[in-house]
Amino acid sequence: MTQDLTITIWYTAAMVKDRGRLQHINCLGVKVIGFYVPSHPRHIKRLKMNLAVVFVFLTSLRLASGQKVANIARGRNVAQSSVGYGGGPQRAVDGNRASNWNQRSCTHTNKDRRPWWRLDLGKRYKINTVTVTNRRDCCGNRLNGAEIRIGDRLDDNGNANTRCTVISHIPWGHTRTFQCKGMEGRFVNIVIPNRKEYLTLCEVEVTGEPAGNNPRPVVNIAKRGKVSQSSIGFGGSPHRAVDGNRASDWHQGSCTHTNNDRRPWWRLDLGKRYKITTVTIYNRRDCCSNRLNGAEIRIGDRLDDNGNANTRCAVISSIPAGYSRTFQCKGMEGRFVNIVIPNRKEYLTLCEVEVTGEPAGNNPRPVVNIAKRGKVSQSSIGFGGSPHRAVDENRASDWHQGSCTHTNNDRRPWWRLDLGKRYKITTVTIYNRRDCCSNRLNGAEIRIGDRLDDNGNANTRCAVISSIPAGYSRTFQCKGMEGRFVNVVIPNRKEYLTLCEVEVTGYRRPSPENLRLSGKVSQSSIGFGGSPHRAVDGNRASDWHQGSCTHTNKDRRPWWRLDLGKRYKITTVTIYNRRDCCSNRLNGAEIRIGDRLDDNGNANTRCTVISSIPAGYSRTFQCKGMEGRFVNIVIPNRKEYLTLCEVEVTGEPTENNPTAVVNIARSGKVAQSSIGFGGSPQRAVDGNRASDWHQGSCTHTNKDRRPWWRLDLGKRYKIDAITIYNRRDCCSNRLNGAEIRIGDRLDDHGNANPRCTVISSIPAGYSHTFQCKGMEGRFVNIVIPNRKEYLTLCEVEVTGEPTENIPTAGD
Predict the structure, then answer these.
(1) Domains of the chain (ranges, CATH numbers)
(2) Residue 617: pLDDT above 90?
(3) Each residue of 179-213: b (16+ CB within 10 Å) or e?
(4) Which of 295, 309, 405, 711 is most buried, with most CB under 10 Å away?
C-alpha cells in the first residue's frame, strides 16, 4: 500500500468549481494543500490542466499499488419484478461485465409494467457511486429513462425510495457511473417507470461505506419452515412457495399447485410461535391470477381443520397477474401461517410466500408427526398400494397420484404402524381417498397398544371412524393412550382398505435421530437432475416423477456419500428403493463406513451387501456400532445407474473425532486468464459439482496460450489435497497435462510457483484428488502449459490448514 502523499497545488478563487476534483484526490488518500494566488486567465487554464494530470497520475498510482474501491454489490441478495428467458437477478452481481446476452451474464425481466431490479445490501450504506453496464448485442436503449433509487423502505418493492438519478442513456455495451453523493439506504433499486418494458442489466457495481445507524434486518422467516398443502396437482409441490424464487410463470417450475379442491389450502409451519409482521404473496403471471381472489391468510397455533380455523389476518381481494402484495398482520402470534380459499372449489397456486416477524416469548411444544419415523405393514398389498404410502408425507388423495395404500378385498383388512417404542399418542389424523370409494373407511377402528396378537388389532380402541368425506382428513383425539403400535382396521366385513396419509402426534423419550439431517452429500455424477440431496430430503416418495430420488449417470462403480461432519458409531442404515422401475439396480450394492476419502470413500470398511430391496420398499441394515464419518453406498464391479429414494442413518457421536476436513477453496477469491462463453472463475468454487456445461456450474476460458485459473486463499496454507471435477458432456481431454502450482508469488499470474503435480487425465464427469503433502502457499493455480487451449473446471476443492507465517501478496 502506498503511503499518503502531500501535493502542493496552486489554485485561485476562479477554480472553485474544480475543488470537487481536489476532494476526489483526497479520497484516494492523498493530502492536497491549496494556496491562493492572484488570478490570471492563462495561469488558471494551465493549472486546471495540471490538476487533471495529477488526478489521473494519482489514480493510476493508487490502483497500481493494489488498493481498490470495493464493489459492495458483489454476491449480495437480489430480486427483480420477474425473470424472463432465464435472466435471473443474480447475474447483475456476478462480477462479470460480459454484455452479450449469449454470454449468460445479463439479467432479463418479462415485459412488465414498471420493471425493477433490487439489491439488498443487508444494512444501511452511504452510497457513493452506482455503476451500470448496458447490453451490447441489442436493445441498449431500453434503459433510457430508468431511475436509480436508494433507501430503507420496501413499499412498492423499494421503488418508492429516494431517487439518486435518472439514466438518460448508456451506449450499447458501455458502462456508466452515477454519483449518489452519500445517499443512505439498504436497498438500491433500478426501475423503469411509466411504461411497459424489458429490464436488462449486465452488471451493477456499487461503492460506499456502512452508515452509522442501521435498521434491524428484515428476514424472510418462511424459508426456515416446513410446508404442506391440501393436495399436489401437476407436480406443484408446496415447497416451491418457499424456494426463494419469485418466478411467476408456471413453466419456470417455481409455483405451487393443488388439485381442484373444496377449500384448497397451503400451510407454513415455522416450528415455533412468531409475532408475524407481514405476509407477502407472489401471484401467477401466465394465467389464472383471479384464482387467489377471496383467499384468506390465517395465523395461529392450532391444527384444527388443518390450521384453517386459526385467526384471520387478511382477505386477499386481488393481486394482479405476476405481481406481489404485502399484507400487514401487526404482530399476530402463531406457529402456523395458512393461505386458504374458503367456500368454493378451486385450484390454489402460490409462486412465492415471504413472511417477516420475530419469535414470540411463549412458544408451545412442537407438534411432530411421529408416524413418518415408524415401520409399516398391512394385511395385503393390492394394485401396488404399499403400506409406506401412508407415511410418505404426501397427502395427495387421488389414486393415480401414487400416494395411497391399498389392500386386497380382505376379511378384516388392516394397516399397522410400528413406532419402535411406546409413545403417549395424542392424535391420529387420517386422509381419505378423493377420486372414489370414500365410504370404505366407514366403521374402521383406530387401535393403540404394545401387543401383536391378531396383528395388533386386539389392542385398545382409541376411536371408530364414522366417516371422512372424500379427499378430506379427520383428526382423532387419543388423549395420551400408550403404545408402540397404531392400527387402522375394518372389523366385521370383507373390504378394501385405502389410506392416503396417516399422521400421528405424541411424546416419548429421545431415541436415535436420523443423522442425515446434519450431513452433506455427494455422488459420482448427476443424471437426469437426480441430485444427491434428494436422498436426505425427508421425503420417502419412491416414484421418479415425484422428484425425490437421486440418480447418477451410468457410471463404472457409481457411488453416493454422506459426510456426517464427525465420527459416529453407526447403528443402522435404512435405504428406500425406487418403485416405478429398475428396482434390481441396487442388487449387490455395498454400504461402507469409515473416515477415509480414498477412492471417494469407497475404500472404507464394508458394513453389508444389499442383496435386494423390493420395488418401493425399504430395508434397514444393522451396522452394529461401526465407526466413521462417511457413509457410502456403492455398486462395485459393474457399470450401472445408482438411484436412492431416501437414506436414513442412526447412531451416536464417538468421543474420538478426527479434525474436520474443510474445503477451504469456497472462502477464497478466484480469477482466470479470460472468460469464454460466460464461464466465470467463481463457478469452480460454487459448491456445485454438476459437470454438464448446460447446468451452468463449469468455468470456461477463451482458447488462450497457456490458459490458467487461480485461487487466492487470502493467507498462506499448508495444502494437503486438491480435488478437480472434470467436464462430462464433452472435451474432457483438454485437462490432460495441466499443472497444479502452489506458492506466494504472483509472477506470471502465479503460474511460476512450485508445481504440486501434473494432471495426466481425469475421465469425463469424474473427479481426481491430488496429494500436495503440505506444500505451502497462498495461491493455487491450475494452468495448461505449452499449448493454446480452453480451460474448463467444474469444481475445485482444496483441503489444508493455515500456517503461522502469513506473507503479503506481491505485485
Answers:
(1) 6-64 (no CATH), 77-210 (2.60.120.260), 221-359 (2.60.120.260), 370-507 (2.60.120.260), 515-653 (2.60.120.260), 664-802 (2.60.120.260)
(2) no
(3) ebeebbbbbbbbbbbeeebbbbbbbbbbbbeebee
(4) 405
